[in-house]
Amino acid sequence: MASVKQLLKDIAAAPDGPQIAAIFDFDGTIISGYSATSFIREQLRRGDLQARELLELTQAMTSFGLGNLGFSAMMTVTTQFLRGITEASYEELGETLYQDQLARRIYPESRALINAHLAKGHTVAVISSATPYQVTPAARDLGIDHVMCTELGVEDGLFTGDVIRPTCFGQGKVDAAERLAREQGADLDQSFFYSDSHDDLLLLERVGLPRVLNPNSRLLGIARDRHWPVASFSSRGRPSLSLYLRSAAATVSLVPTFLAGLPVYALTRSRRQSLNFSLSLFADTASALIGLDLNVKGKQHLWSHRPAVFIFNHQSKADVVVIASLLRSDMAGVGKQEIRKLPIIGRVLEFAGVVMIDRANSASAIEAMTPLVEAMRDEGKSVVLAPEGTRSVSPRLGVFKKGAFHLAMQAGVPIIPIVIRNAGDVAPKGDFVFRPATVDVEVLEPIDTRHWQASDLNTHIRDVRNRMLAVLGQPLEPVAETTSPRRGRPPGKTKTPAKAKTKAKTRARAQPQRPAAKKAATRKKTAAKKPASTPAARGRTVKARPKAKPKNRASRVPNQ
């Protein structure tokens, strides 16, 4: 059984450049489980899938699983229920389900493999029998440009109920890989393919470097016979009872650890010493229960300039434990107003100095944070908060709010960025369970804010964010381009992106709605501009059908 470290070493040993392709299956390989399950469950929840349709879909899936029905035939049965539904609604459903469910099911190990290939300049692609609506949101989030899937027939923005053949299954995946190689100048004999299923045996045999991830029993036997590297991941999927119990204990440990500080208060009459004792105890207790280890670079910056405003990228509820383990004493924090409603824990956090703010009301939030300025100036405490405002569904750094930067300027203290690389490995957004992991953290040098001016705040925020982006290896935020002076505007004065966006929205509201005929014409023009990977550009045609009326139901999903 190969380890992720060995797989990463294999990638590092491969030549750089796009002539090496790194192809990934999707379900079971990039994500735990099957994306179609989430789509079908959502349809059932909404009442969009009728009992008769569910029965037919289940029968087709069962026949396919038993080998009595081919993949293309099974897709034909399942996609007929999409006839007349708008493609746009299906795309929207895919985006929603990715944000709410699928993002947290991405294997951290698969993300690491993808990032390693991208760093080598390889041609990274997803080739999946699923539909683009299931795969594209994840691929975009992972930075994968090439997606080749089973395509569905669409006319005038409506699904026809047809499947474009050949489907992306079996030999269809090999054909897709060879087309990718031709278009990108890649050599499949030197390329990687990662899969979990024996259904992908043809493509595993076609590439020079097959890699088997989370295999089913049949593929595991084949891989062992052929000495293919095999790796299985336990970082996602159904957690054990032990993980549930340890996660619950870590969550509630906040209360007993703060109660343990009461004797310190009774003896010293110092609330500050009591809270510092409790914070350190909570950090150590929760870390032990979770199985959390930290690999920290730049530790010296945690103590060199205090008080300070510490900012961090927010990926996970595990960030609370990570930050407590790093900072340990003389801290105040900021939390969303909803935390106050948590039984007992909300009160404990307020007592510990966490300021609860209403994120929807910026004026109220600024007023609520005023005591934090006093705590930094008068008590020498530091403040920690996430400038993104909320957890992200992936390691990609979100847009920064200004609160942390205003605080630092008002208090005259430095900003110290903390970059957390992979807290999502411990607990991705939406998951209750904590999983054991080592989290990499880099503490950046303190940034002096004493000479900052409010008029330059956007520039300072961009610079700080770019420092964090550089550590994460993500694209930097470009400097805003200036516009040429217009009549009535003083020379050199430029319109900010925010104002431009607001004016664009205002113009859009003022414009009348296009008639349906113009909308259809626009859709046809857009379809004509699709890239070569689409069915239309590949010369395939969608079977003509009488135009169906849009159904007033949400999207439905085929079973792959």
Features:
single chain, 560 residues, alpha/beta, Rossmann fold, 7-stranded mixed beta sheet, elongated
Give an overview in words:
The protein is of the alpha/beta class. The protein has two domains: 4-231, HAD superfamily/HAD-like (Rossmann fold, 3-Layer(aba) Sandwich), CATH 3.40.50; 241-472, Glycerol-3-phosphate (1)-acyltransferase (3-Layer(aba) Sandwich), CATH 3.40.1130. It is 44% helix and 12% strand. The chain is built from 22 helices and 15 strands. The protein has helices spanning 4-13, 35-46, 51-65, 71-79, 87-102, 108-119, 132-142, 171-184, 201-206, 217-226, 241-252, 254-259, 262-268, 271-290, 319-327, 345-351, 362-368, 370-379, 403-411, 457-472, 497-510, 516-528; strands spanning 21-24, 123-127, 146-148, 152-155, 158-163, 192-195, 209-213, 230-231, 292-297, 309-312, 331-336, 354-357, 382-385, 415-420, 437-443. The protein has a seven-stranded mixed sheet with strand order 9-15-14-10-13-11-12, with helices on both faces. A six-stranded parallel sheet has the order 3-2-1-6-7-8, with helices on both faces. Helix 9 (201-206) links the parallel strand 6 and strand 7. Helix 14 (271-290) crosses helix 15 (319-327). The longest helix has 20 residues, at 271-290. The protein is elongated, with a radius of gyration of 27 Å.
